[in-house]
């Protein structure tokens, strides 16, 4: 009997900083967060690593676990792989050569933007869609948060996911083939991907549709951006344009909204922002969407330009990338380029195994028990106030009722019911207070003028 390997999640909660304010809980699109003993607790099975909770946390208590940059020192050839969206972070007074030179100064030996040569990935996606005519619309696997969301919440749509890897895999295989062709051994090459979002961290550590990622380490883009800014020179840098020889206009725009959708089918759609995606997938699952060929779904607003590990403004980043893309040729111009000789080697490596559904939004695996729990839930909801205040530690009354039937919460967690029971002398005031302390922590109800927004904040 094999034991399932738990899915890696990069998001963690710092118990010393968390104030149990519920901002994270109410913003989570998968209702993965509860407040227990005054602290936010992330239910790993429901988390899709979209990072909404980290953005909303006023105490900066939610953080990401990441690899140490010193890890690159273990390799002779240290390859930095990054999406073009990283270049869009820098003000335009810095040239591409200056940014590349700063990355080399930090300690990398080779610099690759992952979207080159994007033409191979486009062809692989077209071939994958052509083979599978039964499951339309075809849904892109570019955004790992969306892939995880579909697996756990919309399992009937898992078959619509395209069996193709993401651009960082393309960039990694491309760099690896080039270096090995120059005589480097595989174990001498370290591939480090600079990610604009938390979900891609988890996708590298716990890939779906493949046994393990080709990437050796993952780097927070925000952290690397700050290091590059410290090391960048305003003087003229050596010409590094040969390292971008196969970068195309299509590749630079790939990570922006409609970067993929514009290439696949007359009826293609691009949706960004995870709450927008959730609403659309509900319509799609209920067969309320007209005939669509291709869906590009991204968790962040403005796609990767709005990634949660970026430091720049997402609108400025998009505008810079669009301006930059105009200086490059479209991918179609590379049809007779010598790079095409690598197509036979690279394209098979972009194939992804089928991604199996993993539904967690069900009350029970046993249908009969699930129906019993549903009936019980409906009866419980009759007694709850239905105002979704979150004071019970669950994001809404429906979620509290679900927790109750799964033995994770009690009726006394609802403050309104407790108040009613006190009025009816069914529960003492001291018992009611103890229940509240259990949920929110013992010192929660004491005056504290040093908390955020209070009189002595900052002292």
Textual characterization of the structure:
With 459 residues, the protein is of the alpha/beta class. It folds into three domains: 11-64, Alpha-Beta Plaits (2-Layer Sandwich); 69-350, no CATH class; 367-440, no CATH class. Helix content is 35%, strand content 10%. The protein contains 16 helices and eleven strands. Helix 7 links the parallel strand 8 (189-195) and strand 9. The longest helix has 17 residues, at 367-383. The radius of gyration is 25 Å and the shape is globular. The model has no long low-confidence stretch (mean pLDDT 90).
The rough form would be described as: globular
Q: Report the count of strand segments.
A: 11
User: How many separate domains?
Assistant: 3
Radius of gyration computed on alpha carbons: 25 Å
How are the strands of the largest sheet arranged?
A: 6-5-8-9
Distance between the termini: 57 Å
The amount of beta strand, in percent, is 5-15%
Determine the structural class based on helices, strands and strand pairing: alpha/beta
Overall pLDDT score:
90
**Uncertain stretches of 5 or more adjacent residues:** none
Helix content: 25-40%
What is the string of helix and strand elements? EHEEHEEHEHEHHEHEHHEHEHHHHHH
Main beta-sheet strand count, sense and barrel state = 4 strands, parallel
Total helices: the number is 16
Protein name: Iron only hydrogenase large subunit-like protein
Keywords: 4Fe-4S, Iron, Iron-sulfur, Metal-binding
Domain 4Fe-4S ferredoxin-type: 9-38, 40-67
GO molecular function: 4 iron, 4 sulfur cluster binding; metal ion binding
């Amino acid at each position: 009997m094999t034991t399932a390997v738990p899915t890696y999640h990069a998001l963690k909660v710092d118990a010393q900083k968390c104030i149990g304010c519920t901002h994270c809980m109410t913003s989570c699109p998968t209702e993965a967060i509860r407040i227990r003993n005054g602290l936010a607790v992330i239910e790993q099975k429901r988390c899709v690593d979209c990072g909404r909770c980290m953005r909303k946390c006023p105490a900066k208590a939610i953080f990401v676990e990441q690899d140490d940059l010193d890890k690159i020192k273990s390799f002779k050839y240290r390859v930095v792989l990054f999406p073009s969206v990283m270049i869009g972070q820098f003000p335009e007074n810095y040239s591409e050569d200056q940014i590349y030179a700063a990355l080399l100064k930090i300690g990398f030996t080779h610099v690759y933007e992952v979207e080159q040569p994007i033409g191979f990935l486009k062809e692989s996606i077209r071939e994958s869609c052509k083979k599978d005519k039964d499951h339309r619309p075809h849904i892109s696997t570019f955004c790992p948060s969306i892939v995880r969301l579909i697996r756990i919440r919309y399992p009937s749509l898992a078959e619509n996911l395209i069996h193709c890897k993401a651009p960082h895999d393309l960039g990694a295989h491309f760099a690896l083939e080039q270096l090995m062709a120059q005589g480097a051994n595989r174990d001498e090459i370290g591939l480090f991907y600079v990610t604009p979002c938390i979900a891609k961290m988890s996708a590298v550590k716990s890939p779906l549709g493949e046994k393990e990622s080709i990437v050796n380490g993952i780097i927070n883009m925000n952290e690397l951006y700050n290091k590059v800014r410290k090391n960048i020179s305003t003087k003229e840098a050596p010409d590094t344009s040969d390292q971008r020889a196969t970068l195309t206009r299509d590749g630079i725009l790939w990570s922006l909204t409609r970067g993929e959708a514009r290439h696949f089918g007359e009826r293609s759609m691009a949706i960004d922002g995870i709450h927008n995606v959730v609403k659309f997938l509900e319509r799609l699952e209920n067969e309320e969407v007209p005939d669509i060929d291709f869906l590009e779904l991204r968790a962040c607003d403005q796609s990767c330009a709005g990634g949660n590990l970026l430091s720049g403004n997402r609108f400025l980043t998009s505008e810079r990338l669009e301006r930059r893309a105009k200086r490059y040729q479209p991918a179609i111009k590379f049809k007779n380029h010598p790079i095409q000789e690598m197509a036979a080697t690279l394209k098979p490596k972009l194939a992804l195994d089928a991604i199996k559904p993993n539904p967690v939004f069900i009350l029970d695996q046993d249908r009969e028990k699930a129906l019993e729990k549903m009936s019980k839930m409906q009866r419980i909801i009759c007694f709850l106030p239905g105002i979704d205040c979150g004071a019970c530690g669950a994001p809404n009354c429906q979620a509290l009722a679900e927790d109750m039937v799964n033995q994770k919460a009690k009726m006394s967690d609802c403050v309104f019911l407790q108040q009613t029971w006190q009025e009816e002398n069914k529960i003492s005031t001291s018992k009611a207070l103890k229940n509240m302390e259990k949920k929110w922590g013992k010192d929660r109800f004491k005056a504290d003028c040093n908390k955020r927004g209070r009189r002595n904040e900052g002292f």
